Amino acid sequence: xxxxxxxxxxxxxxxxxxxxxxxxxxxxxxxxxxxxxxxxxxxxxxxxxxxxxxxxxxxxxxxxxxxxxxxxxxxxxxxxxxxxxxxxxxxxxxxxxxxxxxxxxxxxxxxxxxxxxxxxxxxxxxxxxxxxxxxxxxxxxxxxxxxxxxxxxxxxxxxxxxxxxxxxxxxxxxxxxxxxxxxxxxxxxxxxxxxxxxxxxxxxxxxxxxxxxxxxxxxxxxxxxxxxxxxxxxxxxxxxxxxxxxxxxxxxxxxxxxxxxxxxxxxxxxxxxxxxxxxxxxxxxxxxxxxxxxxxxxxxxxxxxxxxxxxxxxxxxxxxxxxxxxxxxxxxxxxxxxx
Length: 339
Hints:
Layout: H1 2-44, H2 60-70, H3 81-97, H4 116-137, H5 141-172, H6 177-182, H7 189-192, H8 194-207, H9 219-222, H10 232-257, H11 275-296, H12 302-330
Helix pairs in contact: 1-2, 1-10, 1-11, 2-10, 3-4, 3-10, 4-5, 5-8, 5-12, 8-10, 8-12, 10-11
């Protein structure tokens, strides 16, 4: 019995504990990201923002969560019941699953697999299914139009993100996220691959349906897009999934281009600060850019969105793949397989 416990149950409990240590702080961060967004946008637009529930309004996310949990879940009469309820669960679950391969430092990662980038890309590509299912299962015109927009938008910008990732992989020769970060000890890829960093960030805005690319939720045209028929906890799951994806894309940008947990300068006092704090600072900086852009830029028209993805980002990213690989081959710097 003792052998069975040590061989099977103890490792399982350890994994469950690590999952809880990742998921619970992530949900808290998602809640307070909504607070940060409202405060940052209020400051940029010369408003006050939430400031009454608790000191400085810090309890506002908790009050919002309690209100959403107490709301009555309303299900349209003609909706496909199973798919209607399954869509927000799928969206939220996928936003959590991708964190399995995200390393917080060189020793702290839930699943240190050799194809971490491929796993993340596959999980993020599945995210569109939750939105498509929600739009179709609602059996309503506006949600369906929002779902169609989201499908076209995410497919368009995933192509560019794929080429961006290829350039990073060419420079590192590995799909392992820890090895990608370790390859940036001398310099961050945001410096040597700056155009790809910009394309990755802007494509992240489109992937997460954030302004100025929030066409699937365009209030002026589609009321609220794919989630217009949702209420209560099911709307909250979509909300949590969107903001968790924002944090995830910021984490990936930090790992691929900003050196992950590595300090900006490998000298004291920068090296005295723990790696996961540097990682958190870089994620916070990327999230601030998300909020800054929402507060300042108007929404794109749909034809502008498609033109930017297919006629600007795709040729540039494809050209950069050719240029980076050519430079690496010319200077004999292409990583050897297995290195």
